[in-house]
Amino acid sequence: MASGRGIARLLIVVVGAAVFAVIGVSLFVVYPASMADLAGVLVALVVVVAGIRIAGSVAGSLFPGYDVAEVAVEGPITRDGGGGRLPSSPRGTPADDIVDQIDRADEDDNVDALLLKLNTPGGEIVPSDDIRLAAERFDGPTIAYTTDVCASGGYWIASGCDELWARDGSIVGSIGVIGSRVNANDLAEKVGLSYERLAAGEYKDAGTPLKELEDDEREYLQGLIDDYYETFVERVSDGRDLEPEFVRDTEARIYLGEEAYEMELVDHLGTRRELEDELADRLDRDAVAVEAFEPERPLMARIGTGAQQLAYAFGAGIAGIAEDREFRLRL
Length: 331
Prior knowledge:
Number of domains: 2
Strand content: 5-15%
CATH superfamily of the largest domain: 2-enoyl-CoA Hydratase, Chain A, domain 1
CATH class of the largest domain: Alpha Beta
Order of helices and strands: HHEEEHEHEEHEEEHHHEHEHEHE
Radius of gyration: 27 Å
Protein name: Signal peptide peptidase SppA, 36K type
Low-confidence stretches: 83-90, 309-325
Number of helices: 11
Strand order of the largest sheet: 11-7-5-4-1-12
Shape: globular
Largest sheet: 6 strands, parallel
Organism: Natronorubrum sulfidifaciens JCM 14089
Structural class: alpha/beta
Helix content: 40-55%
Oligomer: single chain
CATH architecture of the largest domain: Alpha-Beta Complex
Number of strands: 13
GO biological process, one term: proteolysis
CATH topology of the largest domain: 2-enoyl-CoA Hydratase, Chain A, domain 1
């Protein structure tokens, strides 16, 4: 089936190239005779190249060369790919982009299955859950796989897929939640700074780094972490068909792929090629053709990304300090 589509695409490209070649030569070489010079030949070549591209686009639309979509979740998971309000590492995973890619794959009639590539240490809670929900919505087989790291938020996402593949040396697990804050109270006193509270609501400024954390505030913030943790346990238990107590007993440990497989935290161990062979068997075909779905970014967004990378290179140290100026929760 795939080879038939390939032959059809090639035929369209060849026919399209021939048609545009005839048009180009006729317009710029043969008629009129005065234009049968070097400039005419060059213009004719431009027309031929344009024709090949147009024909290739038409062929790709009529006979797409893929039947499986791949979406990659790589790096820390955040809402927009950054780590805060100031410039941060450009290598983060923008959750909204990932959700859009999965939804586009789901709407593509040529896509029969979804591969979700997970190489992430985790990240923000709600963005991770948005990606998990998108994977659950996909109408067809969904297979998560990792070669390096599928931890915390990455495992949260994997719980929304039909199964998880890993390598023997992959790092898997870290089913837990962490909250962090910088206690800058002593430093503030040394430099002559003091914190003056103006707030409505007893816990509005809980976790503010310029004051000591009171016992009731610590209990309040720990309660938030515990609630998120129970949600995490529930997601993994339901999605991976594991007992909640077993999930809690992992105590947010990480495991190498082989041990994770023995504990049933991973469904299969294997290479990417072995995964594709297995998927081809399930879809009852000789082989699968995988297409990487990537974000659809307008020109200004691409320019903005470049500017962010430049800003990160220039001020990463400042951004790193600013990231921890308030209480933060992450997977």
